[in-house]
Amino acid sequence: MKSVTVYDIAKEANVSVATVSRVLNNTAPVKKETRERVKELIDKYQFQPNALARSLIKKETGMIGIILPDITNPFFPEVLSGFDQEARKKGYTYFLCDTVSANADDAEQYVRESQYLNVLAEKQVDGIVMLGGRIDLAKPGKELVEEVVDVGKRLPVLLINGRIPGAGLPAVASDERFGAELATTHLIELGHRKIALVGGYRHMSNTVQRTAGFTKTMERYGLEVRKEWLLHDGFSVDSGTAFMDRLLRLPDRPTAVFCLNDLVAIGVLKAAVKAGLKVPQDMSIIGYDDIPFASYSIPELTTVSLRAHDLGRTAAEILHKMITKSKVPKTTLIKPELVIRESTGAPAPH
Amino acid sequence: MKSVTVYDIAKEANVSVATVSRVLNNTAPVKKETRERVKELIDKYQFQPNALARSLIKKETGMIGIILPDITNPFFPEVLSGFDQEARKKGYTYFLCDTVSANADDAEQYVRESQYLNVLAEKQVDGIVMLGGRIDLAKPGKELVEEVVDVGKRLPVLLINGRIPGAGLPAVASDERFGAELATTHLIELGHRKIALVGGYRHMSNTVQRTAGFTKTMERYGLEVRKEWLLHDGFSVDSGTAFMDRLLRLPDRPTAVFCLNDLVAIGVLKAAVKAGLKVPQDMSIIGYDDIPFASYSIPELTTVSLRAHDLGRTAAEILHKMITKSKVPKTTLIKPELVIRESTGAPAPH
Q1: Which of A29, A107, A118, A292 is the least crowded, having the fewest Cβ atoms under 10 Å away?
Q2: Locate the HTH lacI-type domain: which residues (chains A, B) (predicted)?
C-alpha cells in the first residue's frame, strides 16, 4: 500500500496542505474543529510526516545553501538534481545562490560569493556547498581562500569539483586527469595520431588537469603534442566555432579534436559541418561533461561523462555526514566515464 | 573612474571581503586595529556599499524565494538569469526552491510546493515568485488554489507564466496565443497548407492556449486542422522522436511541424533526419521557447522566443513594486517573438 502523504490527509480532511502543515508544525492558529479533524486522520493512518516535514516540525533549519557561478550552464542543474534527490531523502531543503556576473567580471563574482557566504552563515543554514567560481582557480588569492576557511570553521562547507588550497575542506571531485586520459585513449585507439585539444581557461584547475591528462597520454603513445593544435580560452559554443576555424586554416590539420567541454564541441561540430566536413568520417570530435545536449546533436556527441548527477548525489551524502559530525574523506573522487556516441570514428585512410 | 567595491577595500586593507562585510554589518567581532583600518578606507573612498550590501546592513531580509518545478529544463535558468540581473540591482538575493519529483509524480510535486510556500513564508522572505507546477494547470484543484491565496495574503506572491484562477495574484506572462499565431502564420506564409502540431499536455494551460492560437490561425486561412496531425502528451526530446515517427507512418504526411517546445522540435528533427528527410527542404520544423540549444542544432531551429530573460527581468521589477507597495497591473503580458533560423522553408513543389 502506498504510504499516506500530507496530501492525502489534506484531501480527506478537505483542507489545504498548508493547514495540515500548520497543525503538524503548530506554526499558525488553525480553527479548533479543523485541527481536530486533521489530528484524527493523522492518528487514523498513523501518519508519519516525511523527513522534510519532520525537520519543519523540529524547527531545525534543514536548509543547505548552494553557491554556484551560473545556473544557465547546463552542467550545474544536473549536479543540483542529483544533490536535491539525495538531500531531500535526508530531510534537507536547499537554497541556490547564483553568483553570475552580467559583465562576466570575475572580481564581481567573487564579491558575490563573499556576500552569499556571509548571508548563508547568518541565516544559520546547516551547511554550504560551493561549486565553480573561486574554487575553480588554479591559484586563488589569499583573501579568497581565507574567507572560505573562516566560514568553514563556523559550519560545514563542502566543495564540488574544486579546491581551496590548504584549507582542508572536504571535496567531492571528478577525476579530471582520468577523464582526459579516457578521451585521448579513445581517439588514439581509433587510429588517430594528429589530435588537437581545444577549450578551457589556463587559470582554471580543470583545464590544467585535463590538459595534463591529455599530454601524458599522448606522450605515453609517443605522439606529438603540437602547439598550434592546443587552443585555450573559451568554454562557449562560439569559442568552439572560433577554435575550429583556426584549426581548419592550418596547412596541417588534426584528424580529431578533443574539446574541454560539450559546448565547445558543439561549436567545433558546427564549424566542421559548415566547412563541408563529415563528422566523424573527416573529423572526429569528442566533448567533455555529457550535458543533455550532447545526445541531442546530429551526430550525437561522443563525450566524457562527469557523472554530474552522481557528483551531486554523493555531495549530499557527504555533507549530511559532515552536518551529523561523522567522519568524511578529504576528497571523494568520482571517476568519469567515456560515452561513445556518433561523433568519433577511425580517421580516413590517406 | 570605476567605483570602489568591497573587494577593493578588502584588498587595500589586506583583509578578506568577509572582514569588510563584518565591519559594515557589525555582525561579528573584528580586531580593533583591523576595524579602524577598514573604516579609514571606507571614509577615504567615500565607499557606498551596493544595494545588496546595504540590505545586509539594514538587516532587512532582502530575500526572494523562487519556487519552480525543474531546474534541468533549460527554460527556467534563462528566466532566472533575467530575474537575478534585475533583482540584484534592486538589492535582492534569491533562493531557489526546486520542486521536481524524481518520480515525476505530480501530487508529490504539489506537496513540495506547499512545503516551500510555508518554509519561505516562515523565513520571512520579502516576496515569492512561482513558476510551473500547479500554476500551469488548466484547472487546479481547490486546495492547491487556496494555499497560494493564503500565502498571498501574508506576503507578495507573483506568478510567472501561469495563473491561479480567482486568486487575483499579479502575473507576468507570455502571450501564448500570440506566440502560436506567429509560428503558424510563418509556416502558412512560406506556403505550407498541411501543418501538424505536436507536443504539450492537454491539462496544461500553455498547451491549451498555444493549440487555440494554432487552430484559430489555421481557420482564418481556411486550412484544415487534421486530427491525426495533432499529437499531445510530451515535452521531451524522446516524445518528439515518437511524434515524428507516428507522422512519418501516415499515408498523408504534413509538410511542416509546429512543436510546442524546442526539446520536442529537437526530437522531431532527429527522427526526420534519421528517416532520410532533409530539413527544411522535405519538412519544415518550428519550435517554441528559444532555449540556447535552438541555435546549436544543425540546422539551427526556427522557433518562437518566449523572451525568457525579459520575463524574468520584468518579474523582478513587478515584484519589487509589490514589495514596496506600489500599484502593479494584474497581468503583464510579454509578447513572444518569431526567431527565423534554418529549419523552416517553403514546401517542396509536387
Answers
A1: A29
A2: 4-58
Predicted TM-score (pTM) of the model is 0.79
Look up the ipTM and state it.
Answer: 0.76
Q: What's the mean pLDDT in B92-106?
A: 70
CB atoms within 10 A of CB A316: 25
Specify the CATH superfamily of domain A63-174+307-335. Response regulator (3.40.50.2300)
Do A63-174+307-335 and A176-306 agree at the fold level?
yes
Beta-carbon neighbour count of residue A326 at 10 Å?
Answer: 9
CB contact under 8 A, B5 and A77: no
Instruction: Report chain A residues whose CB lies below 8 A from the CB of B85.
Output: 102
Is the CB of residue A51 less than 8 Å away from at least one CB of chain B?
Answer: no
CB contact under 8 A, B16 and A143: yes
**A237:B116 CB<8 A:** no
Cα separations in angstroms, B46 against A107, B4, B5, B9, B43: 20, 9, 11, 11, 5
The reply to whether residue B27 touches residue A119, judged by beta carbons under 8 angstroms, is: no
Interchain CB contact of A331 with B (< 8 Å)? no
Domain topology for A6-58: 434 Repressor (Amino-terminal Domain) (1.10.260)
Half-sphere exposure of B118 (CA within 13 A, CB side): 27
pLDDT along chain A (350 residues), means of 10: 66 80 72 85 70 45 84 85 87 80 65 82 84 87 87 92 88 96 98 97 93 98 96 95 97 97 97 97 97 93 96 96 93 97 92
Q: Which residue ranges make up each domain of chain A?
A: 6-58, 63-174+307-335, 176-306
* Helix, strand, coil share (%) of chain A residues, nearest 5: 45, 15, 35
CATH architecture type of domain B176-306: 3-Layer(aba) Sandwich (3.40)
pLDDT in tens, A315-327: 999 999 999 889 9
| B chain contacts of residue A144, beta-carbon cutoff 8 Å | 16
